[in-house]
Amino acid sequence: MSTVALRCEGLVHVYREADTDVAALRGIDLVVQEAERIALLGPSGSGKSTLMAIVAGILRPSAGRISVFGVDIERARERDLLRIRRDLLGLMLQGAATNLLLHEDAEANLAWALRGKPRADATLGRRILRSNGLGRDLRPVSALIPSEQQIVALAVSMAARPRLLIADEPTSQLDDASRDHLLDLFVDTAAAEGTAVLLVTHDEDVARRMQRMIHLRDGRIGEEASDEGRFAVIGTDGSVQLPTALRESWPAGALVDVDEVAAGEIRLRLRGGEGER
Ligand SMILES: Nc1ncnc2c1ncn2[C@@H]1O[C@H](COP(=O)(O)OP(=O)(O)OP(=O)(O)O)[C@@H](O)[C@H]1O
C-alpha cells in the first residue's frame, strides 16, 4: 500500500484584515501520494501561495484538515511542526535570497541547510553541485548567475533528503534553456530520491513535467490534468467549476437544469438560455 505524503480535506483559509476578511482557500481536497510530483497552477490570487504556506506549516488553516505523512498539521504542537519541517519537508521558496545565504558560498549554504540534522550528510547536495560545475565554487552565492543560484537552492532544499519538496516558482527567473536544465535536474533528483513534490508555477510547460497538474481558481481546485486527460474536479460540497470560457455566459446565480441523461452523464441547460428563450 502506498503512503500518503499529503492529505488536505476541506481546507479553508481566511486572512483577517482590520475591516475585511479575504477567503483565500475555500475548501481544498487534495491527496498527494509518496513520490508523486504535482504542479499547482492558477491565476494570481487563486490561493497557491496560501496553500503552500499551510503545507509548510508556516500558516495555520482557518478550517479543514491537513496531514503530512500521517501527522495532523493543524493539531500538531510547535515541537512536532519543527520536527516535520526538519525531517520531512524541503522548501524552495521564491527568490534566491529567501532560500540562500547570499554572502556565503554554495558549500557553506549546504552546511547551513544541514545544521541540527545529525543524521543527514552533504552527499546528495554536493553531488548536485558537482554535476553542475559548482562543486568547488568559492564565490558567494550573490556572485552566481540566476540559473546557478537556483541549482544551489535545489541542492540546499534536497540536501537533507526531504520526503516532500515544496517549490514555489523555482524557474520563474530563468531563460528557457536554464529552465529546462533545472527541471531535468529537479525531476531526476526527486524521482531518484522518491521525493513527493508540490510545485507552484504559472508556466504550463513547467507544470507538464510533473505527473499531475492541479488548477486552482478562487481558492478551489477547478481542474486536474494528467496523461489521462483534463478533468473538472468535484468539491467536498458537490460543486463543479465551469470552464473559464463559459463563466461570462453562465454568470453566478444563473439557474440551470441538471438532468442525468445516462449513467455517468449529466446535461446542464441554462434557464432562459439558447433554445429556451
Ligand atoms: N497576508 C495576506 N493578507 C490578506 N490577504 C492576503 C494575504 N496573502 C494573500 N492574500 C489574499 O489571498 C488571496 C490568495 O492569495 P495567494 O497569494 O495565496 O494567491 P496566489 O495564487 O499565490 O497568487 P500569486 O500567483 O499572485 O502569488 C488573494 O486574494 C490575496 O490578495
UniProtKB/TrEMBL annotation:
GO molecular function: ATP binding
Residue ranges of domain ABC transporter in the record: 6-243
Presence of keyword DNA-binding: no
Pfam families documented for this protein: ABC_tran (PF00005)
Keyword terms of this UniProt record: ATP-binding, Nucleotide-binding
SUPFAM superfamilies: P-loop containing nucleoside triphosphate hydrolases (SSF52540)
InterPro entries: AAA+_ATPase, ABC_transporter-like_ATP-bd, ABC_transpr_LolD-like, P-loop_NTPase
Descriptive protein name: ABC transporter ATP-binding protein
Native source species: Frondihabitans peucedani
Lineage of source species: Bacteria, Bacillati, Actinomycetota, Actinomycetes, Micrococcales
